[in-house]
Amino acid sequence: MRQATAFAIAAGLLCAVTIPAHGATTTTPRGGIARPAPTPRPRPTPLPRPHQIPQGVFCLLPAGQGTGQDPHIYSDPDVDGISVRQNWGELELSEGIFDWSYLDNVLSMVELAGKPVLLRIITGGGDIALGGSCPTWVMNAVANEALPPSQKFYTFDDFGSSVTIAVFWDPVWLEKKTAMIAALGARYSGRPGVKIVGVSFANANSEDWAVPHTPTEVAAWFAAGYTSEKMLEAGRQIIDAAMVAFPNQYITLAVAGNGPTLDPDPSYVARNAVLNARASWARRLIVQKNSLSTYIPTAPGTGTAWKLLWDDRPNVAGQMLYWCYGDTTYRVNDGVPIDPSLALINSVNKGVGYGTNYIEIYRTDVVNLPDATHYAHTVLSAR
Predict the structure, then answer these.
(1) Domain with 314 in it: what CATH number?
(2) Measured torsion, CA atoms of residues 25, 26, 29, 31, in degrees rounded to the nearest 10
(3) Domain co-membership, 1 together with 90
(4) Roughly how many angstroms between the first and final C-alpha of the chain, as a whole number?
(5) How far is CA 329 from CA 21, 137, 325, 359, 361, in A?
(6) What residue numbers bound the domain in which 35 lies?
(7) 49-60: pLDDT as tens digits
(8) What is the greatest pairwise CA distance in the chain?
(9) Is residue 45 part of a domain?
(10) Do 219 and 251 form a contact (C-beta atoms < 8 A)?
Protein backbone atom coordinates (compact mmCIF):
# COMPACT_ATOMS: atom_id res chain seq x y z
CA MET A 1 0.00 0.00 0.00
CA ARG A 2 1.35 3.39 -1.02
CA GLN A 3 1.73 5.66 2.02
CA ALA A 4 1.55 9.45 2.29
CA THR A 5 1.64 11.66 5.34
CA ALA A 6 -0.55 14.67 6.03
CA PHE A 7 -0.33 16.91 9.04
CA ALA A 8 -3.09 18.49 11.09
CA ILE A 9 -2.86 20.68 14.15
CA ALA A 10 -5.29 19.68 16.83
CA ALA A 11 -5.22 20.68 20.49
CA GLY A 12 -1.74 22.05 19.98
CA LEU A 13 -0.28 18.64 18.96
CA LEU A 14 1.18 17.60 15.58
CA CYS A 15 -0.34 14.25 14.65
CA ALA A 16 0.63 12.01 11.73
CA VAL A 17 -2.25 10.61 9.66
CA THR A 18 -1.78 7.75 7.23
CA ILE A 19 -3.55 8.16 3.88
CA PRO A 20 -4.41 4.86 2.21
CA ALA A 21 -4.15 4.03 -1.46
CA HIS A 22 -6.61 5.33 -4.01
CA GLY A 23 -10.07 3.87 -3.48
CA ALA A 24 -9.63 3.12 0.24
CA THR A 25 -10.72 5.12 3.27
CA THR A 26 -8.53 6.62 5.94
CA THR A 27 -7.65 4.81 9.14
CA THR A 28 -10.63 4.73 11.44
CA PRO A 29 -10.53 7.50 14.03
CA ARG A 30 -11.84 7.26 17.55
CA GLY A 31 -15.57 6.56 17.44
CA GLY A 32 -15.29 3.95 14.70
CA ILE A 33 -16.46 6.13 11.74
CA ALA A 34 -14.23 5.97 8.68
CA ARG A 35 -13.85 9.22 6.77
CA PRO A 36 -12.64 9.54 3.17
CA ALA A 37 -9.48 11.47 2.50
CA PRO A 38 -10.35 15.02 1.41
CA THR A 39 -9.69 15.92 -2.22
CA PRO A 40 -7.68 19.13 -2.55
CA ARG A 41 -9.43 21.80 -4.59
CA PRO A 42 -7.26 23.94 -6.83
CA ARG A 43 -7.61 27.65 -6.24
CA PRO A 44 -7.49 29.88 -9.30
CA THR A 45 -4.86 32.57 -9.35
CA PRO A 46 -6.69 35.88 -8.95
CA LEU A 47 -6.35 38.30 -11.85
CA PRO A 48 -4.75 41.67 -11.21
CA ARG A 49 -7.25 44.41 -10.60
CA PRO A 50 -7.05 48.05 -11.63
CA HIS A 51 -6.88 50.71 -8.97
CA GLN A 52 -9.35 53.54 -8.48
CA ILE A 53 -11.04 54.94 -11.58
CA PRO A 54 -9.17 58.07 -12.72
CA GLN A 55 -11.05 61.29 -12.15
CA GLY A 56 -11.13 64.68 -13.81
CA VAL A 57 -10.87 65.98 -17.36
CA PHE A 58 -9.76 63.63 -20.13
CA CYS A 59 -8.67 65.48 -23.25
CA LEU A 60 -10.27 63.71 -26.22
CA LEU A 61 -7.75 63.66 -29.05
CA PRO A 62 -8.87 63.46 -32.68
CA ALA A 63 -8.36 59.96 -34.08
CA GLY A 64 -4.75 59.40 -35.06
CA GLN A 65 -3.56 62.78 -33.79
CA GLY A 66 -1.55 64.06 -30.85
CA THR A 67 2.03 63.05 -31.66
CA GLY A 68 3.21 66.25 -33.36
CA GLN A 69 3.59 69.74 -31.98
CA ASP A 70 0.43 69.36 -29.98
CA PRO A 71 -0.71 72.24 -27.81
CA HIS A 72 0.09 72.30 -24.14
CA ILE A 73 -2.39 69.57 -23.18
CA TYR A 74 0.30 67.17 -21.94
CA SER A 75 1.59 69.68 -19.39
CA ASP A 76 -1.75 71.35 -18.62
CA PRO A 77 -2.54 70.81 -14.91
CA ASP A 78 -6.25 71.00 -15.71
CA VAL A 79 -5.95 67.95 -17.97
CA ASP A 80 -6.08 64.86 -15.79
CA GLY A 81 -5.88 62.24 -18.55
CA ILE A 82 -5.73 61.78 -22.31
CA SER A 83 -8.19 59.84 -24.48
CA VAL A 84 -6.26 58.30 -27.37
CA ARG A 85 -8.16 57.12 -30.45
CA GLN A 86 -7.25 55.36 -33.68
CA ASN A 87 -9.29 53.84 -36.48
CA TRP A 88 -9.12 50.05 -36.70
CA GLY A 89 -8.41 50.31 -40.42
CA GLU A 90 -5.31 52.42 -39.74
CA LEU A 91 -4.08 50.07 -37.02
CA GLU A 92 -4.50 46.60 -38.56
CA LEU A 93 -3.50 47.03 -42.19
CA SER A 94 -4.10 43.39 -43.08
CA GLU A 95 -5.06 40.44 -40.95
CA GLY A 96 -2.58 40.17 -38.09
CA ILE A 97 -0.33 42.92 -39.50
CA PHE A 98 -0.38 45.97 -37.24
CA ASP A 99 1.14 49.42 -37.51
CA TRP A 100 1.77 50.28 -33.86
CA SER A 101 3.76 53.45 -34.54
CA TYR A 102 1.02 55.98 -33.76
CA LEU A 103 -0.10 54.33 -30.54
CA ASP A 104 3.47 53.73 -29.38
CA ASN A 105 4.37 57.38 -29.95
CA VAL A 106 1.34 59.01 -28.38
CA LEU A 107 1.29 56.65 -25.40
CA SER A 108 4.94 57.46 -24.72
CA MET A 109 4.15 61.18 -24.77
CA VAL A 110 1.22 60.79 -22.40
CA GLU A 111 3.09 58.52 -20.02
CA LEU A 112 6.07 60.89 -20.00
CA ALA A 113 3.65 63.58 -18.84
CA GLY A 114 2.48 61.28 -16.05
CA LYS A 115 -1.16 61.26 -17.12
CA PRO A 116 -3.46 58.23 -17.40
CA VAL A 117 -4.57 57.01 -20.82
CA LEU A 118 -8.00 55.98 -22.07
CA LEU A 119 -7.32 53.84 -25.14
CA ARG A 120 -10.01 53.42 -27.78
CA ILE A 121 -9.95 51.77 -31.22
CA ILE A 122 -12.78 53.03 -33.45
CA THR A 123 -14.52 50.18 -35.29
CA GLY A 124 -17.86 51.54 -36.54
CA GLY A 125 -19.01 53.31 -39.67
CA GLY A 126 -18.24 50.59 -42.20
CA ASP A 127 -15.34 50.27 -44.63
CA ILE A 128 -12.51 52.73 -43.99
CA ALA A 129 -12.11 53.12 -47.75
CA LEU A 130 -15.62 54.58 -47.80
CA GLY A 131 -15.21 56.90 -44.83
CA GLY A 132 -15.72 54.46 -41.96
CA SER A 133 -13.25 52.92 -39.51
CA CYS A 134 -13.32 49.18 -40.29
CA PRO A 135 -10.48 47.65 -42.32
CA THR A 136 -11.42 46.81 -45.90
CA TRP A 137 -10.06 43.30 -45.46
CA VAL A 138 -12.54 42.70 -42.61
CA MET A 139 -15.46 43.79 -44.77
CA ASN A 140 -14.17 41.51 -47.53
CA ALA A 141 -13.95 38.59 -45.10
CA VAL A 142 -17.58 39.14 -44.10
CA ALA A 143 -18.55 39.35 -47.77
CA ASN A 144 -16.94 35.95 -48.39
CA GLU A 145 -19.10 34.24 -45.77
CA ALA A 146 -21.54 31.62 -47.03
CA LEU A 147 -24.52 33.79 -46.11
CA PRO A 148 -26.76 35.99 -48.23
CA PRO A 149 -25.78 39.68 -48.02
CA SER A 150 -29.05 40.54 -46.28
CA GLN A 151 -28.03 38.36 -43.33
CA LYS A 152 -24.54 39.75 -42.80
CA PHE A 153 -24.66 43.41 -43.87
CA TYR A 154 -26.88 46.29 -42.83
CA THR A 155 -27.25 49.58 -44.70
CA PHE A 156 -28.61 52.79 -43.20
CA ASP A 157 -28.69 56.52 -43.86
CA ASP A 158 -26.23 58.57 -41.81
CA PHE A 159 -27.12 62.25 -42.27
CA GLY A 160 -27.57 61.82 -46.01
CA SER A 161 -24.79 59.29 -46.59
CA SER A 162 -25.45 55.60 -47.16
CA VAL A 163 -23.38 53.47 -44.77
CA THR A 164 -23.03 49.69 -44.85
CA ILE A 165 -21.77 47.79 -41.81
CA ALA A 166 -21.49 44.15 -40.83
CA VAL A 167 -24.36 43.16 -38.56
CA PHE A 168 -23.20 43.34 -34.96
CA TRP A 169 -23.59 39.58 -34.36
CA ASP A 170 -21.89 38.34 -37.53
CA PRO A 171 -19.45 35.55 -36.53
CA VAL A 172 -16.65 36.61 -38.88
CA TRP A 173 -16.94 40.24 -37.73
CA LEU A 174 -16.76 39.15 -34.09
CA GLU A 175 -13.84 36.83 -34.76
CA LYS A 176 -11.77 39.57 -36.40
CA LYS A 177 -12.69 42.18 -33.81
CA THR A 178 -11.90 40.02 -30.78
CA ALA A 179 -8.59 38.99 -32.37
CA MET A 180 -7.69 42.68 -32.74
CA ILE A 181 -8.59 43.28 -29.09
CA ALA A 182 -6.36 40.37 -28.03
CA ALA A 183 -3.42 41.76 -30.02
CA LEU A 184 -4.00 45.23 -28.58
CA GLY A 185 -3.94 43.81 -25.07
CA ALA A 186 -0.81 41.76 -25.72
CA ARG A 187 1.01 44.95 -26.63
CA TYR A 188 -0.40 47.47 -24.17
CA SER A 189 -1.95 45.78 -21.12
CA GLY A 190 1.41 45.96 -19.36
CA ARG A 191 1.80 49.70 -19.93
CA PRO A 192 1.26 51.36 -16.54
CA GLY A 193 -0.16 54.51 -18.09
CA VAL A 194 -3.03 52.70 -19.79
CA LYS A 195 -5.80 52.78 -17.19
CA ILE A 196 -9.00 52.46 -19.25
CA VAL A 197 -9.86 50.75 -22.54
CA GLY A 198 -12.99 51.52 -24.53
CA VAL A 199 -15.12 48.81 -26.15
CA SER A 200 -18.30 48.76 -28.20
CA PHE A 201 -20.62 46.22 -29.78
CA ALA A 202 -23.66 48.29 -30.85
CA ASN A 203 -21.88 51.05 -32.72
CA ALA A 204 -23.11 51.73 -36.22
CA ASN A 205 -21.26 55.03 -36.62
CA SER A 206 -18.18 55.29 -34.39
CA GLU A 207 -17.46 53.88 -30.92
CA ASP A 208 -20.58 55.46 -29.45
CA TRP A 209 -23.65 53.32 -28.93
CA ALA A 210 -25.75 53.78 -32.05
CA VAL A 211 -28.38 51.34 -33.32
CA PRO A 212 -30.48 52.98 -36.08
CA HIS A 213 -34.14 52.63 -35.13
CA THR A 214 -36.53 54.56 -37.36
CA PRO A 215 -39.49 52.39 -38.47
CA THR A 216 -37.78 51.65 -41.80
CA GLU A 217 -34.49 50.85 -40.07
CA VAL A 218 -36.19 48.57 -37.55
CA ALA A 219 -37.84 46.60 -40.36
CA ALA A 220 -34.44 46.20 -42.01
CA TRP A 221 -32.91 44.96 -38.75
CA PHE A 222 -35.55 42.30 -38.33
CA ALA A 223 -35.12 41.24 -41.96
CA ALA A 224 -31.41 40.78 -41.22
CA GLY A 225 -32.19 38.50 -38.27
CA TYR A 226 -31.95 40.94 -35.37
CA THR A 227 -32.82 39.64 -31.90
CA SER A 228 -32.03 41.02 -28.46
CA GLU A 229 -30.36 37.71 -27.62
CA LYS A 230 -27.95 37.98 -30.56
CA MET A 231 -27.01 41.48 -29.46
CA LEU A 232 -26.38 40.41 -25.89
CA GLU A 233 -24.23 37.50 -27.03
CA ALA A 234 -22.21 39.83 -29.25
CA GLY A 235 -21.78 42.17 -26.29
CA ARG A 236 -20.65 39.32 -24.06
CA GLN A 237 -18.00 38.23 -26.55
CA ILE A 238 -16.59 41.72 -27.01
CA ILE A 239 -16.59 42.65 -23.32
CA ASP A 240 -15.11 39.30 -22.27
CA ALA A 241 -12.38 39.63 -24.89
CA ALA A 242 -11.43 43.07 -23.58
CA MET A 243 -11.48 41.99 -19.94
CA VAL A 244 -9.17 39.05 -20.69
CA ALA A 245 -6.86 41.08 -22.92
CA PHE A 246 -6.58 43.93 -20.39
CA PRO A 247 -6.62 42.37 -16.89
CA ASN A 248 -4.98 45.45 -15.34
CA GLN A 249 -7.38 48.02 -16.77
CA TYR A 250 -10.95 49.20 -16.49
CA ILE A 251 -13.12 48.58 -19.54
CA THR A 252 -15.55 51.34 -20.48
CA LEU A 253 -18.73 50.87 -22.51
CA ALA A 254 -20.77 53.76 -23.89
CA VAL A 255 -24.50 52.99 -23.64
CA ALA A 256 -27.72 54.37 -25.08
CA GLY A 257 -31.17 53.20 -26.15
CA ASN A 258 -32.35 51.27 -29.21
CA GLY A 259 -35.73 52.90 -29.67
CA PRO A 260 -39.13 51.51 -28.63
CA THR A 261 -39.64 48.56 -31.00
CA LEU A 262 -36.42 46.57 -31.46
CA ASP A 263 -36.28 45.14 -27.94
CA PRO A 264 -38.65 44.65 -24.98
CA ASP A 265 -37.82 48.23 -23.93
CA PRO A 266 -35.44 50.90 -25.30
CA SER A 267 -32.67 50.23 -22.77
CA TYR A 268 -33.08 46.45 -22.65
CA VAL A 269 -29.89 45.47 -24.48
CA ALA A 270 -27.65 48.07 -22.84
CA ARG A 271 -29.01 47.36 -19.36
CA ASN A 272 -28.65 43.59 -19.64
CA ALA A 273 -25.24 43.79 -21.27
CA VAL A 274 -24.07 45.76 -18.23
CA LEU A 275 -25.72 43.32 -15.81
CA ASN A 276 -24.06 40.38 -17.57
CA ALA A 277 -20.67 42.08 -17.43
CA ARG A 278 -21.12 42.92 -13.75
CA ALA A 279 -21.94 39.27 -13.01
CA SER A 280 -18.75 38.11 -14.71
CA TRP A 281 -16.33 40.93 -14.00
CA ALA A 282 -17.72 42.75 -10.96
CA ARG A 283 -16.76 46.44 -10.88
CA ARG A 284 -14.18 46.44 -13.68
CA LEU A 285 -16.75 47.82 -16.13
CA ILE A 286 -17.29 51.56 -16.46
CA VAL A 287 -20.62 52.66 -17.94
CA GLN A 288 -20.53 55.97 -19.73
CA LYS A 289 -22.68 58.22 -21.89
CA ASN A 290 -21.03 59.90 -24.85
CA SER A 291 -23.62 62.62 -25.35
CA LEU A 292 -23.19 65.11 -22.52
CA SER A 293 -24.86 68.42 -23.34
CA THR A 294 -26.72 71.27 -21.70
CA TYR A 295 -30.11 69.75 -22.41
CA ILE A 296 -29.80 66.14 -21.23
CA PRO A 297 -32.27 65.07 -18.52
CA THR A 298 -31.31 66.17 -15.03
CA ALA A 299 -30.18 63.27 -12.83
CA PRO A 300 -31.48 60.66 -12.17
CA GLY A 301 -32.93 60.67 -15.69
CA THR A 302 -35.97 58.57 -14.80
CA GLY A 303 -37.71 57.19 -17.86
CA THR A 304 -34.74 57.81 -20.17
CA ALA A 305 -31.57 55.99 -21.19
CA TRP A 306 -29.70 58.31 -18.81
CA LYS A 307 -31.13 56.31 -15.92
CA LEU A 308 -28.62 53.61 -16.92
CA LEU A 309 -25.83 55.95 -15.87
CA TRP A 310 -27.49 56.80 -12.56
CA ASP A 311 -28.14 53.14 -11.76
CA ASP A 312 -24.52 52.13 -12.35
CA ARG A 313 -22.84 54.58 -10.01
CA PRO A 314 -20.08 54.80 -8.88
CA ASN A 315 -18.42 53.28 -12.00
CA VAL A 316 -19.71 55.89 -14.46
CA ALA A 317 -18.24 58.52 -16.77
CA GLY A 318 -19.18 60.81 -19.64
CA GLN A 319 -18.06 62.28 -22.93
CA MET A 320 -19.16 65.54 -24.50
CA LEU A 321 -21.65 65.25 -27.35
CA TYR A 322 -19.58 67.64 -29.47
CA TRP A 323 -17.15 70.48 -29.10
CA CYS A 324 -18.39 73.90 -28.03
CA TYR A 325 -15.68 76.23 -29.33
CA GLY A 326 -16.23 77.30 -32.92
CA ASP A 327 -19.42 75.29 -33.44
CA THR A 328 -21.85 77.65 -35.14
CA THR A 329 -24.61 75.01 -35.00
CA TYR A 330 -24.55 74.94 -31.16
CA ARG A 331 -25.15 71.19 -31.06
CA VAL A 332 -24.33 71.00 -27.37
CA ASN A 333 -27.12 73.51 -26.64
CA ASP A 334 -29.76 71.95 -28.94
CA GLY A 335 -29.12 74.52 -31.67
CA VAL A 336 -29.69 77.57 -29.47
CA PRO A 337 -26.85 80.16 -29.53
CA ILE A 338 -24.81 80.20 -26.32
CA ASP A 339 -21.38 81.28 -25.15
CA PRO A 340 -19.12 78.23 -25.67
CA SER A 341 -17.60 78.39 -22.18
CA LEU A 342 -21.05 78.47 -20.62
CA ALA A 343 -22.14 75.57 -22.82
CA LEU A 344 -19.22 73.48 -21.60
CA ILE A 345 -19.72 74.43 -17.95
CA ASN A 346 -23.45 73.69 -18.04
CA SER A 347 -22.82 70.33 -19.71
CA VAL A 348 -20.19 69.40 -17.14
CA ASN A 349 -22.61 70.27 -14.34
CA LYS A 350 -25.17 67.93 -15.87
CA GLY A 351 -22.60 65.15 -15.96
CA VAL A 352 -21.43 65.77 -12.41
CA GLY A 353 -25.04 65.37 -11.32
CA TYR A 354 -24.84 61.75 -12.46
CA GLY A 355 -21.68 61.13 -10.46
CA THR A 356 -19.28 60.88 -13.40
CA ASN A 357 -15.68 60.14 -12.45
CA TYR A 358 -14.24 61.72 -15.56
CA ILE A 359 -15.56 63.58 -18.59
CA GLU A 360 -13.94 63.41 -22.01
CA ILE A 361 -13.75 66.93 -23.45
CA TYR A 362 -12.74 67.59 -27.04
CA ARG A 363 -9.21 68.90 -27.50
CA THR A 364 -10.34 72.07 -29.23
CA ASP A 365 -12.32 73.03 -26.12
CA VAL A 366 -9.46 72.15 -23.77
CA VAL A 367 -7.14 74.39 -25.77
CA ASN A 368 -9.51 77.29 -26.43
CA LEU A 369 -11.72 77.32 -23.33
CA PRO A 370 -9.20 77.22 -20.47
CA ASP A 371 -11.48 78.73 -17.82
CA ALA A 372 -14.26 76.23 -18.51
CA THR A 373 -11.72 73.39 -18.58
CA HIS A 374 -10.31 74.53 -15.24
CA TYR A 375 -13.82 74.56 -13.83
CA ALA A 376 -14.42 71.02 -15.08
CA HIS A 377 -11.13 69.83 -13.59
CA THR A 378 -11.98 71.42 -10.24
CA VAL A 379 -15.47 69.98 -9.83
CA LEU A 380 -14.53 66.51 -11.09
CA SER A 381 -11.35 66.26 -9.03
CA ALA A 382 -13.21 67.27 -5.89
CA ARG A 383 -15.34 64.12 -5.92
Answers:
(1) 3.20.20.80
(2) -10
(3) no
(4) 66
(5) 81, 36, 11, 22, 18
(6) 1-39
(7) 566 999 999 999
(8) 90
(9) no
(10) no
